[in-house]
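Section 5.1 Outputs to date
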Amino acid sequence: MRFLSRSHYLIVLGLLTLFVVGSVAGQDLNQQKQVLIQKIRDIDKQLADSPSPQEYEDLMNQRNKVEAEIKGVTAKLMADVEAMKKINAVKKAYNAGNNAYKLGSYQEAVTNYDRAISLDSTFYKAHYGKGLSLKKLRKYKEAAKAHQGAIGQNPSYVNSYVALGKLYVKMGQEDKAIQNYDSAIQNNPGAAKAYYELGAVYLNYKKDYTKAAQNLTKATQLDGEYDLAHYSLGVSLTELGRLGDALLTLDKALEVTKRKKWHLPHWRKAVVYNKQGNHTLARVEAEEALKQKKDYAPAAYEAGKASKELGALDQAIAYFNVAKKNRTWRTTAEYEIDLIVNRDKYGGK
């Protein structure tokens, strides 16, 4: 019976060594390979030591079995290498997409994400990246389809639900956004971000402050450091007339935030204090908001209201003049100025 020549053996050994891969499975296979190669070496030593005919036949049978095992390991290693090549190709295309996205080359990003998807359609992050890129290109329906693809591959991937929900809102489809966030919560009940986005839709578009407060409360319970959720909850509670709770929640937003400047909670606190009749604190909070964002019209308006109630009419007019620079607040601010300047026209009020 014939066994591998030394040159043939070295070629096999070299090929086996070539197919070392970085995966855990590949490492295990290579360890098996080394053990088998050592067995071949041990058998060859015994064969070279003038065995009896029966011993020679037994050794050759052993050697043939080990060679067969080596072939099996080689086949597995080669398959593992091909799998790793595919994985690396997918990663390369995906990373190229990410880089293009960061550089603002959104069509190039889509091309690279598509390449990654063509190699592995189950790679949900490539679908997600494609969706973000298409949104930048204002191809909203295509972007929505891409995010739906990501969700189809990974129903627990909250980022795609959030991106898809925002697309629905942008397209004026708030009911679809709500359904989308409900699905996100069903598939991932611990997703604070999904509860926040759902609450934001109820707050900003549906004006359903009760449902907004319910979902935003859940978001803050799941993530106590979620500053936007605390802030939006404070706004919802204000609209529900729960002013004391609103102040506590807005204070919590300021406590947990990592932002160096954040004018919005201060403005909203000014709104609450004015509603409560505490105009001194209302002006303090409005002025703090204006320090953090100069000429912020909503805060200037609240500062004007507080100053007016405190009898500082010139100061009130000055604040209302700041507010009226904003087109949205112009009519309201001009009316307040007119109330002060032409009091007789309004019965002296």
